[in-house]
Amino acid sequence: MLVSRTTVTSLSYISSFILGAVIVLSSSTLWAQADGVPIEPWQLSPMDPQWVEQAEKLRIEGKLLNDKLVSAALSQPTLDVIELLPRRTESQDPKWVAAHARKAVVRIGWYFLCPNCDKWHLNFAGGYAITSDGAVATCFHCIQPNSQTMREGYLIAIDSEQNVCPVTAVLRADKGMDAAIVRVEGLQSEPLPLNDQTSPGDPAFLLSDPLGISGYFSSGMINRFFWLPGKNSGDPQTLRGARDLRVNVSTDWAPGSSGSPVLDQFGNVIGHVAVIHSLSGNNRGPNPGQSSPQEGEPPRSRNPRSTSPTVIILHDAVPARGVKLLAESTVIE
């Protein structure tokens, strides 16, 4: 087939134009964010093949604690010594906090056999390392086995390098505080210090996976410290008293964020995500003794019969004070 000089010239022009467009597009993509900033998927895949493969390998090798062993360990934790890090005192900008949080992230949850099918699934929430040897704090309700949602389950952790790691022991557990500390083998996530010297108005930051939205970073402030309903006479300097203490924080979270660390401007943990609840216009607050909804439930009013629209959604966190006292305790109270 013969091709005229004009045709060759036109094709060359078109090729040059396409190549230039590709270069411009590539350059624009490179300029769209700073060097080293990861681009997240829209949502996490709960059945990410790399995680499933690693979890199944650990299960077959017998390296994972099953739901029965975890349930027993929550009642009788090991009480091993936990050596906490000193809190940081050098203020950083929010970009540093975001990058630091990404290096420290731990996802913790269950690799389980579904009661409704014969398939294995993954379900995880947040956590955070508090020592250099793999002690990880999270919510009690994140690691409490539920026989209604799984026939057989194994507790796992996923570190900041996307490695699936076995949970080997429960070090501390306090259902009333909604806090637990476990030992994770081979964890690559950076440990975080705890800071219990905070006040309303202090900055707060959170990196979590609300509703599976991957790596969502938000900022806010500490709103207030408060007692749980009907619990207003304890000593917050003691483990028993701190069990009933909570803090409202205005960072963004949703189901899936449970156990994720709320950080200050220094990169210390000031609390972890516990509960979301909403208040309507004719609902001034919970009745004494009324239980709070769990974080895994969708936001709802304290009064289920209320027809008034929601006017405020409160984010309750477990303060670092409680986690610190729990880590330092050597007896089960």
Strand content: 25-35%
What is the level 1 CATH name of the largest domain? Mainly Beta
Largest sheet: 6 strands, antiparallel, barrel
Strand tally is: 12
- Which bin fits the share of residues in helices? 10-25%
Radius of gyration: 24 Å
CATH architecture of the largest domain: Beta Barrel
Q: What structural class is derived from the secondary structure elements? A: alpha+beta
CATH topology of the largest domain: Thrombin, subunit H
Q: Ranges with pLDDT <50 over ≥5 residues?
A: 1-32, 286-304
Topology record:
Layout: H1 5-31, H2 49-60, H3 67-75, H4 94-104, E1 105-113, E2 120-129, E3 135-138, H5 140-143, E4 152-158, E5 164-174, E6 179-184, E7 203-208, E8 216-227, H6 239-242, E9 245-249, E10 261-263, E11 269-280, E12 310-319, H7 320-328
Antiparallel strand pairs: 1-2, 1-4, 2-3, 3-6, 4-5, 5-6, 7-8, 7-10, 8-9, 9-12, 10-11, 11-12
Task: Quickly list its features.
333 residues, alpha+beta, Thrombin, subunit H, 2 domains, 6-stranded antiparallel β-barrel
Explain what you see.
The structure is a single chain. The protein has two domains: 49-184, Trypsin-like serine proteases (Thrombin, subunit H); 203-328, Thrombin, subunit H (Beta Barrel). Strands 1-2-3-6-5-4 form a six-stranded antiparallel β-barrel, surrounded by four helices. It has seven helices and twelve strands. It is of the alpha+beta class. It has helices at residues 5-31, 49-60, 67-75, 94-104, 140-143, 239-242, 320-328; strands spanning 105-113, 120-129, 135-138, 152-158, 164-174, 179-184, 203-208, 216-227, 245-249, 261-263, 269-280, 310-319.
